[in-house]
Structure formats: structure tokens, C-alpha cells
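user: Here is a favour to ask of a fellow structure person. I have my own habits and do not want them to colour yours. Could you put it straight underneath, so I can go through it closely?

assistant:
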Amino acid sequence: MKLSLTSWSMPACTLQECADISRALGIGALDVGLFYASALDRDQILSDPAGAAECVRALGVDLPNYYHLFGEGLAGRNLALPGTLDANARDLEAVMRFADAAGIATVFILPGVINPGQSRGDAARVSRESLKRLGELAASFDAKLCFEPHVHSLAESPSLVADLVAETGVGLALDYSHFACLGYRQEEVDTLAPHAVHVHLRQARVGALQTKYAEGTLNFPAMFGTLRDAGYTGALAIEYVHQDYMNTLCEDVLTETVTMRDVFRNWKEAS
């Protein structure tokens, strides 16, 4: 397992600055996405995947993951919205070509939200159909597709997430903080570790999606051991953020990033 840094952790920095910070911290890897000053050009990715790939290859760091949104925000063209699958599949084909051309190891998408008029079961059925077809499409590419269960999505419990994985064959961008925020014990989330394709790291506690390392409840050395024992060998992306979503505005992103980096380094050196 190796560390990465999410580009959206530093909203005021350009993509190159994010890559330079990752190198300066001794990480040397960067997850990329569609947010803030470091945002990739989604239109270019969809219309010219090879050209978009050239831009990110020039960053000079490893690229473990690209985070793709099909529409605007969490709800736009989300996977649980009926009538979006054909358009999303067309876009995903271009996204996967971009990822392979750029040498990006994994692509993560979101499972969808509960749209107006839906129950959680309704949303899960539509999302399941979407994930299954998108997973089949992605299987012919080198990059691996995964989805991230998150607060405010249709997939907010470990059991529902496990069902989606079993029924679709699509693995996870696993972030324990979303489950800890909702009150699930770490041991309950551990059951999802064998399905991890990509992993996010940040400290959390009940009611707080993000908190200072010393104030959270997640046991990261235990988490690293669980992932290792489950056979996970991919990236661990440090994802402290500074944004309005879920009141994640109060932590010093750089300090917490360095703290998490050192917790992992100390664990790895002793393992």
C-alpha cells in the first residue's frame, strides 16, 4: 500500500501546485478530479481523452485515481436517476479511455442519491442496474472502476453497500469516515475491506465527517492491518478537505495531512 493526496484537498492550488505539494511531502502521488482550482476539464476528457491524458501525465507524479461526476453536484445525472444510464455509459467509455491513456489506476464514481419520488429501495434498484452495466463496460479497460458509498447517498449502510457489490461486481472506493459519521462501528465497515479498489483516509467521529486526528474515533493502524490482511495493495489517498459539504471547514488540511502521512509511515515501518 502507498499513499496518495487528493487534489481537491487544496482548493486554491492549481493542479501542478497540488502535484508539487505531494512531491514535497514525500508522497509523490495525486488523485485528480473536477473540483476547484485543480479541476480537470470534463468536456475535454469526454471529447478528447488522449489530449486530456497528456495534460495529467505531465504532472510528474503517480496518478492512482480519477474521481468522475456525470453531472453537476451529487444529484446531477446520478446513477439512481431513471433515464440517465445510456448517457452515463457513453461518457464512461471516454472516461476509461482517458484513464488508460493517462496511466490512472482507478476511476471512482458515486452510487447515486434518493431522487424525488423514490424510496431507498427504488434508488438502489436503479443504481444496481447502472453499476452493473457500467462495470461490464469498464471491464475491457486497464483502469478499475469503483464506487464510493457516502453520506447522503442511497448507500449509507455497510450491508446495503455489500449487496450492491455482490449484485454488480463493482468494487469500492472505501472511505471509513462516511460510515463513522453515521454511527457505524469500525468493525462493521471492516467487512467491506475485501471489496476495496481505492481507499480514502481522514479522521471522523459520529456526527462529524471530518475531524482532527486526535479528536476522531477511527483506529487507523487497525484499519491498515485490516486492509493488508484483506489483500489490498492499492493507494491510500489522504482526503482532508476545506469545503462547505458536511461542515468540513475547520481543520488545518496541511497539518492533518502530514499527521496522517506519519501515522501510516510509522505503521508501515513496524509491520
The chain has one domain: 2-270. The beta strands are 2-6, 30-31, 65-67, 106-109, 144-147, 171-175, 196-201, 235-238.
